[in-house]
Design goal:
- The protein is globular.
- The strands form three sheets. The chain has a three-stranded antiparallel sheet, covered by helices on one side. Strands 1-2 form a two-stranded parallel sheet. It has a two-stranded antiparallel sheet with strand order 3-4.
- The protein contains nine helices and seven strands.
């Protein structure tokens, strides 16, 4: 081991259990220094996976994290965009006109609704006693959305996230010319027009955890949880289907078969 001064030393031990996180590769670290992100653990991107501080540079997977824009940074612009008659208040109808753009641009709004068991975005505009209001002024609107940003979350550094990000970027690149003339994204609250693409939205498809003894646990969409041998076989099928070629599928299946017949090879432990 090395201490802070770089001196190499040894520690007496019987068994070593190493548990650590992930770190950026040297090439990524050098790039982060060049774009002014040297003090971060991962590259910061916007909701379209563009590296902040760069043009036409994208990052996905473990080396990057999405810096979700806070709704309170744009709260005044949202209010002005929704207030079509410029009377200083928002009616329910005016708010409804921008709801879809708000939900797409700021996914933390939907998470906040779910965590507080609110069935509709309009419920955010109710007063402290839970009574519906027909219109709100700017301060009431700001107060209604003041806690929404507390639900902004970072995505896990998993292959499932990276795979969806890769598919998203490939779709955007293939549609770039088309979307330059016909933007498909949400409304720009600061400025005019719409964003060129829909922002990236992660869809959680579930997760598996091996339990040993040919058993596994699974958590799937819809709050469905399963544990046991059948779940292990479900994991086998999902894992094999995610391989990139038939060659890798064959290698994985042959390794599982060899292990089932001869047991695990403990000579490399």
């Amino acid at each position: 081991m090395k201490n802070s001064s770089g001196e190499v030393f040894s520690v007496p031990h019987g068994m070593v259990l190493w548990s650590t996180g992930i770190g950026a590769r040297p090439v990524v670290k050098d790039f982060m220094e060049q774009v002014g992100q040297g003090n971060r653990r991962a590259l910061a991107t916007d909701e379209w996976l563009r590296v902040k501080g760069c043009e036409d540079v994208y990052a996905l997977g473990d080396c990057a994290t999405i810096s979700q824009r806070k709704i309170m940074e744009d709260i005044l612009s949202i209010f002005k965009a929704a207030d079509k008659d410029n009377n200083g208040t928002l009616s329910i109808e005016e708010f409804q006109d921008v709801i879809d753009d708000i939900l797409e641009r700021y996914p933390q709004v939907e998470l906040y609704l779910k965590s507080n068991h609110l069935p509709d975005v309009i419920d955010l505009l109710k007063d402290a006693k839970g009574n519906a209001r027909q219109e709100v002024d700017y301060e009431e609107f700001k107060s209604a959305l003041g806690l929404v940003d507390s639900q902004a979350k970072s995505l896990p550094a998993t292959a499932q996230v990276a795979a969806q990000q890769g598919a998203y970027l490939s779709r955007c690149f293939n549609r770039r010319e088309q979307c330059e003339n016909n933007p498909e994204g949400p409304r720009r609250f600061k400025g005019s027009g719409r964003h060129q693409f829909h922002p990236f939205r992660y869809t959680h498809l579930g997760q598996f955890a091996p339990l040993g003894g040919e058993q596994a646990a699974a958590e799937l969409p819809g709050d469905w949880v399963s544990i046991g041998h059948s779940t292990q076989w479900l994991w086998y099928s999902v894992y094999a289907s995610k391989q990139v070629s038939w060659r890798t599928r064959y290698l994985v299946l042959s390794d599982w078969t060899r292990r089932a017949i001869f047991g695990r090879d403990s000579s490399r432990i």
